[in-house]
Amino acid sequence: MGRISNKESGQSFEDQFKRATSPMMTLLLLSEKPMYVYKISQELEKRSNSAYKMNFLYPVLYRLQQQGYVEEYSQEITESHRTRNYYAITDDGRKYLDFMLKKYRELLSAVETVIDGRQNDADNIGEQAE
């Protein structure tokens, strides 16, 4: 099935989900070790079996940096003379990540409960029809 977009926003459900979860995913990876943008993107793609690709990581990092959750950790000049900026999570970023993970799990559980209730309702309707 292709990517179905929201009629009003033009964004797919997948795009909206990634936009909502990208700060959490970014902080999660940075909580393990400092990384540069391309490495963050590669890790997300690898760990999600290519299901979670983020094309616009710089705005996420800049926003997290403005909020004090991420800081520029160091710079490295590569062999091809490109500058790599490494980013690291701050103490406030770790606290915010813990908060987001807790909220994410609560919301995921609530959504699962609603979905399971929908399935149970469908099962009950099927039993009543017999």
Return the CATH class: Mainly Alpha
Q: What is the annotated CATH architecture? A: Orthogonal Bundle
CATH topology descriptor: Arc Repressor Mutant, subunit A
| Helical run tally | 4
In terms of DSSP E residues, the strand content is 5-15%
Integer average pLDDT: 86
Q: Which sequence of strands runs across the widest sheet?
A: 1-3-2
Please, could you describe this protein's structure?
The protein is of the alpha+beta class. It has one domain (13-129): Winged helix-like DNA-binding domain superfamily/Winged helix DNA-binding domain (Arc Repressor Mutant, subunit A, Orthogonal Bundle). The protein is built from four helices and three strands, in the order H-E-H-H-E-E-H. The protein has helices spanning 13-30, 37-47, 57-66, 91-129, and strands at 35-36, 70-77, 83-89. Strands 1-3-2 form a three-stranded antiparallel sheet. Strand 2 (70-77) and strand 3 (83-89) form a beta hairpin. The two termini are 33 Å apart.
Q: Quick recap of the structure?
A:
The protein is of the alpha+beta class and 130 residues long.
Chart the SSEs and their pairings:
Elements: H1 13-30, E1 35-36, H2 37-47, H3 57-66, E2 70-77, E3 83-89, H4 91-129
Antiparallel strand pairs: 1-3, 2-3
What attributes does this structure have?
Arc Repressor Mutant, subunit A; 3 strands; 130 residues; 4 helices
